[in-house]
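Exercise 7. Given the encoded structure of a 304-residue chain, write a plausible sequence.
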């Protein structure tokens, strides 16, 4: 299943890179690649939101989520197979999804563009755009570069996947952050992001898209809910920083797992409309509870 298209130089470059066979580089590539995972980046936004600066976190979400969506929409349209699936000289050094058949595109997802590259560029780039301090700017250049390079070193993306991801992330920053600064009320931005996401329902058959759709709906609803009913304050108190993050991430996982319980594993892992609907709702509710409702406990308990 899927389409195969590439430049010859991409294949030769990836084969040469993997031929270097350095355990240290492989370890670094695997570690860096994990940082660019969409759930890790969303968790980072959550930590910033709960503890450091909720306004910065909202800015980051406004860039990351559309970039996430567009990446999923393009993947679903082009269906580019991953490099290791079509080139015997390229090994898969770390499977995109470790819990399934490595050669199945429906499980491992498609290649173009690199979602890790897109999300890391939009997330770290937005932080640099908003904060404009040298260490943050340096991180915004170094981290997406390392994350992107790790993806084609590991054999799961072509270099053009990564380059396209960086470009998509950069476009999301400059277009959406300008709009974010211009509009006092953010509802039109949130509504526009959701409308942009919806066409994928008609043709996307990648679980990542439905995770993205649910996460986007959850974040947008949570931000509106927080602005109207919660209005919590950020904290720099060390123990509150730790507790807010641990409880917030734990709540996200707990709600998500609890919502799986009424359904069989066979249904949840299937590529059916019902499975995709459950996944979308599960992510939407998990994000809304942990981002919108959970901060209500901050002022009431005084502990976090």
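Solution.
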């Amino acid at each position: 299943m899927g389409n195969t298209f590439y430049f010859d130089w991409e294949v030769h470059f990836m084969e040469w890179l993997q031929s270097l066979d350095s355990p240290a580089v492989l370890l670094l590539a695997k570690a860096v690649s994990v940082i660019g995972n969409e759930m890790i980046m969303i968790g980072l936004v959550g930590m910033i939101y709960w503890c450091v600066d909720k306004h910065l976190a909202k800015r980051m979400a406004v860039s990351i989520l559309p970039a996430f969506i567009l990446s999923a929409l393009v993947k679903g349209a082009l269906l580019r197979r991953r490099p290791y699936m079509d080139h015997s000289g390229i090994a898969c050094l770390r499977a995109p999804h470790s819990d399934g058949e490595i050669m199945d595109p429906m499980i491992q997802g498609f290649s173009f563009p690199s979602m890790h590259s897109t999300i890391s560029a939009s997330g770290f780039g937005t932080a640099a755009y908003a904060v404009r301090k040298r260490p943050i700017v340096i991180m915004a250049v170094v981290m997406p570069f390392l994350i992107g390079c790790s993806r084609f070193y590991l054999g799961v993306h072509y270099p053009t996947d990564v380059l396209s991801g960086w470009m998509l992330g950069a476009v999301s920053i400059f277009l959406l952050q300008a709009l974010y600064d211009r509009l006092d009320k953010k509802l039109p931005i949130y509504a526009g992001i959701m409308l942009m996401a919806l066409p994928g329902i008609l043709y996307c058959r990648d679980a990542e898209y439905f995770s993205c759709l649910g996460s986007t709906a959850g974040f947008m609803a949570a931000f509106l809910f927080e602005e109207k009913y919660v209005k919590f304050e950020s904290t720099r108190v060390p123990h509150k920083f730790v507790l807010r993050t641990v409880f917030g991430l734990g709540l996200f996982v707990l709600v998500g797992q609890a919502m799986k319980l009424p359904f069989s594993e066979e249904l949840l892992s299937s590529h059916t409309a019902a499975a995709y609907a459950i996944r979308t709702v599960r992510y939407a509710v998990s994000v809304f509870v942990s981002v919108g409702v959970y901060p209500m406990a901050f002022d009431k308990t005084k502990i976090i």
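Remark. The two ends are 49 Å apart (CA to CA). Students should compare their own answers with the one above.
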